[in-house]
Automatic annotation (TrEMBL):
Pfam families: TatA_B_E. Part of the twin-arginine translocation (Tat) system that transports large folded proteins containing a characteristic twin-arginine motif in their signal peptide across membranes. Together with TatC, TatB is part of a receptor directly interacting with Tat signal peptides. TatB may form an oligomeric binding site that transiently accommodates folded Tat precursor proteins before their translocation. Belongs to the TatB family. It is a single-pass membrane protein. The lineage of its organism: Bacteria, Bacillati, Actinomycetota, Actinomycetes, Kitasatosporales. GO terms for molecular function: protein transmembrane transporter activity. Residues 98-147 are annotated as: Disordered. Keywords: Cell membrane, Membrane, Protein transport, Translocation, Transmembrane, Transmembrane helix, Transport. GO terms for biological process: protein transport by the Tat complex. It is found in: Cell membrane; Membrane. The Tat system comprises two distinct complexes: a TatABC complex, containing multiple copies of TatA, TatB and TatC subunits, and a separate TatA complex, containing only TatA subunits. Substrates initially bind to the TatABC complex, which probably triggers association of the separate TatA complex to form the active translocon. This is Sec-independent protein translocase protein TatB. NCBIfam families: PRK01371.1-1, PRK01371.1-4. It comes from Streptomyces fagopyri. Its main location: membrane.
Length: 147
């Protein structure tokens, strides 16, 4: 319940409680708070028991934590009735990306080794060479409205 409170924060809360309620009233306040928390827990447990009783025997294994979508999905996916673990283990994204990277690098090395002087019959395109224009050496007109 208080998983995110550190020791320094806890000490600060205790000092603040002593300052606000005083050392003589603090024990009674702690007893009142613990009594109230205990009553709230008892009330929630009886409410859960009443709901389970009203739902009937087909919901005997119903857990209220399953109403949280994250826990419901985690529970359903962990049961692995659909074979999702096999699918998940069969698909290795890192391996797939490494294969693609290797394929791209091998193509780049092949294209650089079979450059313009290697005698290939036009299988590669030299990207460093500017494309030839058909008689036009000027840029198209600038249109300010188009941008």
């Amino acid at each position: 319940m208080f998983n995110d409170i550190g020791p320094l924060e806890l000490v600060a809360l205790v000092v603040l409680a002593v300052l606000v309620f005083g050392p003589d009233k603090l024990p009674k306040m702690i007893q009142d708070v613990t009594r109230t928390i205990r009553k709230i827990r008892e009330f929630s447990e009886t409410a859960k028991a009443d709901i389970r009783e009203e739902l009937g025997p087909e919901f005997k294994d119903f857990e209220f934590e399953d109403l949280n979508p994250k826990t419901f999905l985690r529970k359903q996916l962990d049961s692995d009735e659909l074979g999702l673990k096999e699918i998940r283990n069969g698909f290795d994204l890192k391996k797939e990306m490494a294969e693609v990277t290797d394929a791209v690098h091998s193509r780049e090395s092949e294209s650089s080794s079979s450059g313009p002087g290697s005698g290939s019959a036009g299988s590669t395109v030299d990207m460093t060479k500017k494309p030839e224009r058909s008689g036009q050496d000027e840029r198209p007109p600038f249109d300010a409205d188009a941008t």
